[in-house]
Amino acid sequence: MKKRFALLLLIGFGMLVLSGCSNSDSTPVPASTTLATSADASVTLTGSTAALPAGVTAADITLTPVTVGLPVAPAEANFLAAVECGPTGTAFLLPVTLTFKLTPARTPGATLTIYFLSGGAWIAAGTGATVSADGLTASASITHFSTYGLFEPNDIALPGDKFFTFLDGVILGGVPSEIMYDDVTGALILPHASAIQVAQAYNEITQAAYGDYQDSNGTTPPVFPATAGTVYIMRSTMPWGSAATYYKLQIISRTLRDGPTYGVVTFRYEKILPLDIVDATGEWVFPGGEHLSVLDSTIAIDYTPVDHGMYAIDGDYTSRTTLSGNFTTWDPTTLTGAVTVTLSLTPGGNLNVTLVGDAPLGTVTLNDGVKQ
After folding, report:
1. Which of 18, 144, 192, 323 has the CA that lies 20 to 30 A from 136?
2. Do 145 and 44 reside in the same domain of the chain?
3. By C-alpha distance, which of 199, 211, 202 is closest to 323?
4. 134: Cβ–Cβ under 8 A, 6 or more apart, which residues?
5. What's the pLDDT tens digit per position in 298-317?
6. Percent of the chain scoring above 70 in pLDDT
7. Measuring CA to CA, how many Å separate 304 from each of 289, 293, 311, 324, 363?
């Protein structure tokens, strides 16, 4: 009897739970609308009008961005924005959403931190602000009004991040030290490194494309704009010829010089691994008589077809088997163009190559090259 009684109780409890779920699912969700927007449109409050407490209407709500008179940021966070919300002390009947515009954009899906002011100090609100799919806004759920601050955790801006100017050089501890910022033109100059822009998100990169090396005595040191949001792969080498180090680098923000005030650039970086480039260095001859030289350090290729002069190809390895760059040929006149070269080794150690370039190179497929 005891077993039977227990079984009946279990069945009855299960029916009760299922019945409760059915009632919950039928509860309508209040419609959300824009309740208020700051005068500069940098902050927006959205939610249901049913969330408003008695005596407060949407017309009563104020959102006032604050930039001065604030306490210092918490040690573990970087300040981005703050807004004073009124009427002071308003407590909502349902959660509402506070949305900040972001300049520059942040990584989509990233979580920023919300603090509120209490007793002249920033207090963690216990909620995060999620960055939108386009990276241009961050939204957090709140239940009461206060002065809220939006912060970026320090683990998003890595510990080595530094501000520096072209005239002052990199602040001690900045890395790599050969990066210089021209605060007149907004360009980053790398006298001892190379950099290529990549399409991947910063956090997706674990290995580095193999960039060409240009030392400080070169006539054209690598230069690229400090454009917020762009991600670069860097190959950095000190001028006395030490081993190369690879980094991923993302520009967070930059300002230009304004009178006596120097412009600044902020970036984040992280050391990453080089690509395991296909080992095709050497001289190769193909069955049709074509010749291919993959030069030492695997950053350039010389291709000599049977019925034409030589093509000199320089570029960067964007994957372990693919080099993207430009060709130059001198027969009958000097011509240049873009080219992508894909290399692979057969199990027997022969080389297969595909070149896809502008005219006059076009598309060339070479199979079963034998190393000389």
Report:
1. 144
2. yes
3. 211
4. 105, 108
5. 578 999 998 778 999 988 88
6. 77
7. 9, 9, 6, 18, 14
In this predicted structure, the answer to whether residue 21 has a pLDDT above a threshold of 50 is no
Among 322, 316, 320, CA closest to 353: 322
Same domain, 126 and 67: yes
Asked, for residue 222, whether it belongs to a domain, the answer is yes
Mean pLDDT over the full length of the chain: 80
Which structure tokens are listed for 171? 């602040």
Pick the more confident residue, 266 or 21.
266
Retrieve residue 280's tokens. 């095709």
Does residue 302 sit in the same domain as residue 335?
yes
Instruction: Mark whether 243 and 351 lie in a shared domain.
Output: no
Domain count, the chain: 3
Q: How far is the C-alpha of 147 from the C-alpha of 334, rounded, in Å?
A: 65
* pLDDT band of 160, cuts 50, 70, 90: very low
What is the extent of the structural domain holding 186? 164-274
Q: Please indicate, yes or no, whether residues 263 and 314 belong to a single structural domain of this protein.
A: no
Residue 258, domain member (yes or no): yes
What average pLDDT does the segment 278-282 reach? 90
Q: Among the residues of 135-288, which ranges form H helices? A: none
Strands 111-118 and 322-329: unpaired
Burial class of residue 371, CB neighbours in 10 A (0-12, 13-18, 19+) = middle
The reply to whether 264 and 197 lie within a common domain is yes
**What are the structure tokens assigned to 315, written together?**
């570029």
Measured CA to CA, the distance from residue 136 to residue 133 in angstroms comes to 8
